[in-house]
Amino acid sequence: MPKIAVVTDFDGTLMEQDVGDELMLAMDVLTQPQVVEASRLFGAKKAGSLAWINAAYPLLEGRQEQVDRVLERVSLRDGAQRFIDFCEQKEVPVTVLSDGMQYYIERILSREQVKVSQVIANPINYLPDGQFQFGVQNSNEACKWCGCCKASVVKQLKEDGWQVIYIGDGSSDYYGSGFADWIFARASLAGYLMEEGTLFYPFETFHDILNVLSSNWERYANGTADRRLSGRFPAACTFPEA
């Protein structure tokens, strides 16, 4: 029987809020000149998230206590824990795949006692010795648009023989979902997919996702569930030649 893996975005997907946006707003990062310019270029599609991350996240250095206070007021999306429990029961690995900051993702998951198979995000952390670590996940030398190359992660899962259920809400998820078998989408991701005519399942809570999966699980397990995709490849994504 085919292997099934779940890949879910974090900000605005597994979480009710976009935690990165909450941080940047609360800490007045968005008004800084280099971030204003990076936001302008991103909005005009002249630069990707990598340029924005390079401009914004270094401004969090030395501000761990303030970051932690913001993290106390964010919450999981309704039904998220029940969904994670379902995946565990079905022995389906869950990857949290985010273009955000590794520190806040792991801190929140630990606080909420949410156990996933792996977290792949930008290695931006407050280290035990008080130092600030800044980095990006993207090691794709052929494309430096995103901080975290979600497309590379899902592409590798497919090459390793997994059927992938992708869950997301934003622009980086458009690329991440490019190799998925099934997509659950909300917010701007749903808009992108509707515009290009790509099949997906809409959702607002993880209860919506569970209602679809639990009632049709055998068809997902054998690869015959409705709205399965094949051959989709985001035109903007490039990879090193083999």
Q: How far do the termini sit from each other?
A: 29 Å
Strand content: 5-15%
> What is the quaternary state of this protein?
single chain
Largest sheet: 6 strands, parallel
Structural class estimated from helices and strands: alpha/beta
Strand order of the main beta sheet, please? 3-2-1-6-7-8
Helices, by number, come to 12
- 3D shape: globular
Overall average residue pLDDT: 96
DSSP helix fraction = 40-55%
Weakly predicted, low-confidence segments = none
Say how many strands there are.
8
Describe the overall structure:
Helix content is 42%, strand content 15%. It has 242 residues and is α/β, with parallel strands linked by helices. The strands form two sheets. The protein has a six-stranded parallel β-sheet with strand order 3-2-1-6-7-8, sandwiched between helices. Helix 6 (80-89) packs parallel to helix 11. The mean pLDDT is 96.
Brief characterization of the structure:
With 242 residues, this protein is of the alpha/beta class. It contains 12 helices and 8 strands. Helix content is 42%, strand content 15%.
Summarize the helices and strands and which ones pair or pack:
Elements: E1 3-8, H1 10-14, H2 19-26, H3 33-43, H4 49-56, H5 64-71, H6 80-89, E2 94-101, H7 102-111, E3 118-122, E4 125-126, E5 132-133, H8 150-159, E6 162-168, H9 171-176, E7 182-185, H10 187-196, E8 201-202, H11 206-215, H12 217-221
Helix pairs in contact: 3-4, 6-11
